[in-house]
Structure to design on (148 residues):
C-alpha cells in the first residue's frame, strides 16, 4: 500500500470509485479540480489500483476536504484513515490553521473516523446531500492545537 498525489493518470479510476461510493458521484471532469493549483488530491494504491482517495480545496490558511472515499470491497481496512492522515499532513505542511468537511449525519463510520482524528461537529447543514436528501454535520479540525 502507498499513498501518493493524485495525477491525471488516476482520474479514470477515481471517477469509477466515485460511482461505486456515491449516489451523486463527481465526474472525471469535475475531479480534475483536485489536480489544479488550488486543490490537492491523494490516492491510496494497493497493487497499483486505487482503493481510496481524498481531496481538499485550499484557501489561504485553511482547507475544505471535498471527499474521502474507499472502495466498498476495501472498507474497514484503514485505507480511508491513511488518506485522511495524508491530507492532514499536507495541510500542516502548508501551515493551514484548520480543515473542515461535511459528513452525512447517517455516515457513522466516517464520523467516527473524523472524530478519531480530532474533528469536532461544529454545525449542521440541513438538506445538504441529495439522493437521498439528508443533513450534513460540518466538522472542523484545528491544526494549530492538534498533535500528530
Amino acid at each position: 500500500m502507498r499513498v501518493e498525489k493524485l495525477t491525471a493518470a488516476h482520474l479514470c479510476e477515481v471517477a469509477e470509485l466515485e460511482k461505486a461510493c456515491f449516489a451523486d458521484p463527481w465526474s472525471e471532469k469535475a475531479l480534475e479540480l483536485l489536480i489544479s493549483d488550488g486543490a490537492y488530491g491523494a490516492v491510496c494504491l494497493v497493487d497499483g489500483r486505487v482503493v481510496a482517495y481524498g481531496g481538499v480545496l485550499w484557501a489561504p490558511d485553511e482547507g475544505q476536504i471535498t471527499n474521502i472515499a474507499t472502495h466498498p470491497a476495501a472498507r474497514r481496512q484503514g485505507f480511508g484513515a491513511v488518506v485522511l492522515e495524508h491530507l492532514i499532513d499536507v495541510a500542516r505542511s502548508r501551515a493551514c490553521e484548520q480543515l473542515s468537511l461535511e459528513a452525512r449525519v447517517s455516515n457513522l463510520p466516517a464520523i467516527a473516523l473524523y472524530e478519531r482524528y480530532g474533528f469536532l461537529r461544529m454545525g449542521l447543514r440541513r438538506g445538504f446531500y441529495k439522493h437521498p436528501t439528508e443533513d450534513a454535520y460540518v466538522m472542523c479540525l484545528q491544526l494549530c492545537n492538534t498533535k500528530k
